[in-house]
């Protein structure tokens, strides 16, 4: 598998297809394989890049002070695009990946041709949320990933979408708990992205699973209302991972968005 190396990061990634670039950013605690259905479909019409974020999948965490901020992940993505000679892309992220996409857009707006935010939210963390994320980080360091994965599987993947559950559970259990804890601590200190989204000038698509309890439809509606001219798609019979639970419906929404960008261009 190809790898991009900088002084501070080693990013493993898949790079398939040709044409306009679509960069897909996975959530926590997953890896690039959560985008397998989209990689297979959209690499027929686009150059699709799916990295393992630092500490996830094959990408090592590297030196870490115990917290990996969203800014670190965003700059890793910028370095990967530089390594590949990619000037701009359609940037899509789910959950934590969506927040990384928002951070990337805030830092590098000129490199984003279109923004796709799936099952995510832009507000800064509450004090209660910070405590919960740091407590979970402590727990993962003490206990590992298996117990957490068992507990949250039915929220990540709706119980009626059993076809997606084994893959999701494997990804969670395979994640390095040290990296997962560092990401949780970093997300606890994230900035508020509502102002940068409200000022966005790129086309945007907001997607959410109807039965997502982590980032409910109301969060997606608020995000949609923030971004001028954005589109909102609610995927029925899906929870937090509609791209895996209902790939045909998710892909139809993404394909329509990508085609709208081509017409605009």
TrEMBL record:
Lineage top rank: taxon: Bacteria
Family annotation (Pfam families): Abhydrolase_6
GO cellular component, one term: membrane
Keyword match Cell membrane: no
GO molecular function: hydrolase activity
Residues in AB hydrolase-1 domain copies: 22-252
Keyword Isomerase: no
Gene3D superfamilies: alpha/beta hydrolase (3.40.50.1820)
Record's keyword terms, sorted: Hydrolase
PANTHER family recorded: AB HYDROLASE SUPERFAMILY PROTEIN YCLE, MONOACYLGLYCEROL LIPASE
Protein name: Alpha/beta fold hydrolase
Organism of derivation: Streptomyces cinereoruber
